[in-house]
Write a structure and sequence with these properties.
- This protein has 5 helices and 5 strands; from the N terminus they run H-E-H-H-E-H-E-E-H-E.
- By secondary structure, it is of the alpha+beta class.
- The protein has one domain.
- It has a 5-stranded mixed β-sheet with strand order 1-2-5-3-4, with helices on both faces.
- The longest helix has 26 residues.
- The chain is globular and about 45 Å long.
- It starts with a helix and ends with a strand.
């Protein structure tokens, strides 16, 4: 019996995703240049988190890992901001997105029981307040850790366009994207 993709999408929307769609992995666009941008360390997580470069692994290996799956569910959340400088609103929006992402991930695990899962979300893994990477230790929760789309070199703009979603959702908004691969 195949998975009910329409049902999965509708449940993701019920769990507060603004948009949701299925993207086959053969449609995913990878970019080494996007991955290399992580080394500029604008977010402060490069070399400090197992789910970010370089700890997450080589670009080519991550591409192969994604291609082991047939498809994934893309979710996008869109959040209104007071203005384009509303950093507090952006952080709250990211937290809300992460809550939605985790709810959708739990729903997929519980209702669809996929044999394999690879959740990819926005930003660095935040399961631990201090990542074991910093202390030179193995990841404390490798089965729960979540890497970012960017760390895998996935072009998020191209990913959402595969679903027909806009990447930019208008003035004074911020959008976040997650991709849950499953088989």
């Amino acid at each position: 019996m195949g998975m009910d993709f329409n049902g999965m999408i509708n449940k993701a929307l019920e769990l507060e995703a603004t948009r949701a769609g299925i993207v086959p992995t053969d449609k995913v666009k990878f970019s080494l240049e996007l991955r290399q941008m992580c080394a500029q360390n604008y977010c402060g997580c490069y070399g400090k988190n197992w789910m970010c470069p370089p700890g997450v692994g080589p670009f080519e290996e991550l591409q192969k890992k994604v291609m082991e799956f047939k498809q994934g569910l893309v979710i996008q959340t869109v959040h209104q901001l007071e203005d384009s400088f509303d950093t507090e609103g952006m952080e709250q929006a990211k937290s809300n997105h992460n809550d939605t992402f985790m709810s959708v991930l739990s729903m997929i695990k519980e209702e669809y029981s996929p044999q394999k899962l690879l959740p990819l979300n926005v930003g660095a893994c935040e399961i631990c307040s201090k990542c074991a990477y910093i202390e030179g230790k193995e990841c404390y929760f490798p089965d729960r850790a979540i890497a970012s789309l960017e760390s895998y070199g996935i072009n998020v703009m191209a990913l959402v366009s595969q679903c027909g979603f806009p990447y930019n959702n208008g003035a004074n908004t911020v959008s976040y994207v997650g991709y849950i691969l499953f088989d």
